[in-house]
Amino acid sequence: MTVSSVNSLSLEPPLKLFSIRKAARSLPAWQAAQGLAINVLAHDQGWISDRFARPADDRWKNVAFTRGIADAPVIDGAVAAFECAPHATISTGDHILFIVDVLKASARPEAAPLVFHRSRYCSVRDEPSD
Length: 130
Hints:
The protein is mostly beta strands. It starts with 6 loop residues before the first strand and ends in an 8-residue tail after the last strand. A five-stranded antiparallel β-sheet has the order 1-2-7-6-3, with no helix packed on it. The chain has a two-stranded antiparallel sheet with strand order 4-5. Strands 8-9 form a two-stranded antiparallel sheet. The chain contains two helices and nine strands. It has helices at 27-32, 46-52, and strands spanning 7-11, 14-21, 36-40, 65-67, 73-75, 80-92, 95-107, 115-117, 120-122.
């Protein structure tokens, strides 16, 4: 699924936080998962974000990935990937907060991330500091 916001919750231990709407069809699968991967997509992977943002029969068609911890899919070419295990869930409002332990992290610091801003994808440019 495409998630609009993932937050760093703690450095020691390393924890991430994201939420899923209680009405999401995939919620039971997320609640049962023994592991998951948070993939930070690269600037040229908007089509993957679009595909996973909507219901589809074969979301993984033409998406190259490797299996990580607990068989979680780590998408090839992503800027970063966090392989995680469930830590806690909190029911609040119309969402479930998922707190996950980061077990392994990998990154491609030279790659530009995919950014969604003002309802469209855009790029991030480094500005020289004075």
